Amino acid sequence: MIRVAIVGIGRMGGRHASNFCKGAVKNAKLAAVCDIDEKVLSAFKNRHAGVATYTDFDKMLEEVKPDAVIVATPHYSHVGLAVKAIEKNISVLVEKPISVTVKEAEKLVEVAKAHKDAVFAIMYNQRSNSIYARAKKIIESGKLGDLQRASFTVTDWYRTQYYYNMGGWRASWSGEGGGTLINQCVHQLDILQWLLGMPEKIVARCKTSGRNISTENDVTALFSYKNYDCVFTASTHELPGENRFVIVGSKGTLVITRHMAVCKYLKMDEKEVNARAKRDYGNRADKKYTTKRMFYGLGNYITDALYGQQCNILRGFAAAVEKKDASLLRARGEEGLNALNIINAINMSAWKGEGVDVPVDPDEYEKMLSEKIESEKKIK
Ligand SMILES: NC(=O)c1ccc[n+]([C@@H]2O[C@H](COP(=O)([O-])OP(=O)(O)OC[C@H]3O[C@@H](n4cnc5c(N)ncnc54)[C@H](O)[C@@H]3O)[C@@H](O)[C@H]2O)c1
Fold first, then answer.
1. pLDDT one-digit tens code per residue, 278-311
2. Which value, to the nearest 10 degrees, does the dihedral of the CA atoms of residues 62, 66, 67, 69 take?
3. pTM above the 0.90 mark?
4. Do 54 and 158 fall into the same domain?
5. Which domain holds residue 9?
6. Got the DSSP string for 35-88?
7. Which CATH number belongs to the domain containing residue 205 in this structure?
8. Which atom from ligand 1 is nearest to the alpha carbon of 77?
9. Rounded to the nearest whole angstrom, what is the distance from the C-alpha of residue 23 to the centroid of ligand 1?
């Protein structure tokens, strides 16, 4: 049984705490929580008597000596808190995003590399969606042939003005370090890079639409890979919204709509269809395909409804810490750098109004972000 502590017990940290307290993570016990807000702590105490509470993170680490810490605070504090724990050889599960800038995140990754006894993980809960895991295997198996085109539309994270007004740190460059990209889309951008790899170049346009916020809530980006392109579209202001990842290869097409996927496998590679054709639209028999459907599964819906998808990551993390085996993680902490590299590149492309190579220069990104924060202060 490992002893876990959580720092930041707001919406997400509070949910993680409940999962530990109701025994949803079998090999882990919640030993302590830390939050800088006394009111949050006293509400927590009423719900979970018996769990130690702290306002001082260092004191909690010193006194409780947990095996693992979950960092569930606003984005800018992730690196500082995680580094403090890992330097004491305490394992860390950091909420997404790993950080706001690649430059900051790299500091954490370096510290984690130097402390091999501490397991380092990131909360990429969408990786536990078996549809994406099976899609990854299909792509890697070569069953789709040579990839030719992809598109990922993510417009189903609807957020109202009420949501943005709720928390001071949300949707600001100074508080959150970005908008829909760093908060919501980091999940899908992780899935995108997990399945397709990292793009070489990005050209993007970001807008703020229909909400009084200073960050983007509407993104259109073109990701260039060696032999094909992927269009990424995201927004948090439109209804009903959709979540649709289309991957087209020379031997088949995969359409993933979050909880379902339709795979169409061609009888022969399109190149062969073309070579054999003695008529304008190709031979009907050569163009035949078989259709296979994949579903999320009732068990997954039930688990998600009871504990939230994040609980899958908590379970994998606890097992990895207990067995000292990082291969049990769904996502290793350093993998958090990939989606963050993409986000920093999208922002920089939009700010400059031109295409950028991935990764972008981390120092230049920090400088441009500071300018955004300064101009935000002038507006307020
Ligand atoms: N994985 C997911 O699906 C998911 C969903 C929502 C939020 N999140 C992530 O969880 C994190 C927290 O988001 P939230 O919605 O719970 O925010 P929140 O504002 O509801 O809670 C944050 C809490 O952290 C506390 N806090 C702030 N700075 C602190 C510090 N230095 N030390 C201790 N406590 C501190 C605040 O007082 C607050 O109680 C973010 O990284 C967010 O992106 C993840």
1. 989 999 999 999 999 999 988 889 988 999 999 9
2. -100
3. yes
4. no
5. 2-126+304-332
6. -S-HHHHHHHHHHSTTSEEES-HHHHHHHH--SEEEE-S-GGGHHHHHHHHHTT
7. 3.30.360.10
8. 31
9. 22
